[in-house]
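Collaborator request, handled under Task 6.
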Amino acid sequence: MYNGETEVFCIKVYNMATVKPFRGIRPPKELVEKVQSRPYDVLDSEEARAEAGDNEMSLYHIIKPEIDFPVGTAETDSRVYAKAAENFAKFRKNGWLVQDGKEQYYIYAQTMNDKTQYGLVVGAYVNDYLTGNIKKHELTRADKEEDRMKHVRVNNANIEPVFFAYPDDSVLDAIVSRYIVSKPEYDYVASGDGFRHRLWIIDKDEDIRSITERFAAIPSLYIADGHHRSAAAALVGAEKARLNPNHTGREEYNYFMAVCFPASQLTIIDYNRVIKDLNGLTPTEFLNALDEKFVVEKKGNDIFKPSELHTFSLYLEGEWYKLTAKPGTYNDSDPIGVLDVTISSNLILDRILGIKDLRRDSRIDFVGGIRGLGELKRRVDSGEMKTALALYPVSMKQLMDIADSGNIMPPKTTWFEPKLRSGLIIHSLD
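Structure tokens returned to the collaborator:
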């Protein structure tokens, strides 16, 4: 067996998180705003084409390289993946991306609505993912995994980070606090989201050592956002280990890039639903059907937002309604059954509206709460949708409890904001 066997064994026995510093590949500070972008999966090809415009330094040329081909070129075309690698090499040759000379950690801060969250950018251990020490709460789709695996393979790098949470730790907080009083390496407000993004470099050897040791005392890391990127990065790392006859366990491909935030700093916002029809029911019949499992209260024309668990907001025919799940319709001792997304899926979408597969049914769409409930009203009032359902958001504690129990959340449960910007740091697998 290879020398890395002991490392895997230790993780299984001691149940600890393994991280390492790395030599980040990143833009010079004067170019960061030209290079950085939104994540690949929050916009379509034409939106990326429009945002990139005539900016040849935009990271979209690497993460959405179909924009360099005629409109309509498939994202999964083999030429598109090859173009990503060609553009990545071009960015490095032109000095738009430069690799740091030392392995180090980084602090990435995001400020939204006067609230700031501080994440540590680390190399997360592939075997932690494979053994379940990096915990997930969503299912992944094989086709999306394979797409991201191809992207990692062709670039031999994690171009975009994944978004992790960890249980709060005072030692890590203290290290971060010492750095953030100094001038950041990057500091800008992104035109795409209006949020402030800052980056500091942790380059002191004693702090690097302390971070590595402290993470080793943390039981688990939790995927907040980026399940497909996490799976793809880990699977490529494992693939490279399997194909390397001289594998030792110390190679850089044994790690992938993650930004780890203390759980208490993160906020999950609501993830709402819009539905195209009432499954053959009239509005009155639909409301009567809801009355069996919910207390239904009319709230009028003003937007109504649910303010506690097991209450929902319904928009129908120009009116807002408050729905309160009746006692006995949910199980508070079941980590999945207690979720409002489960209650609404079982008692409204499935039982009344006949929507059984949230991932594939074309009669339903999903709207992140960052867009506000006014977006739900707009889509219903336009005639595109018939009704809308707003949910009270899941808590970080619920997410972590579910991940700890080995359960999986229903589809489209969590929405994290702000999203990580891409292009601030890249991790090479060499």
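The cover message to the collaborator said: "The chain is about 30% helix and 25% strand. The mean pLDDT is 94. Please let us know whether this matches your experimental observations."
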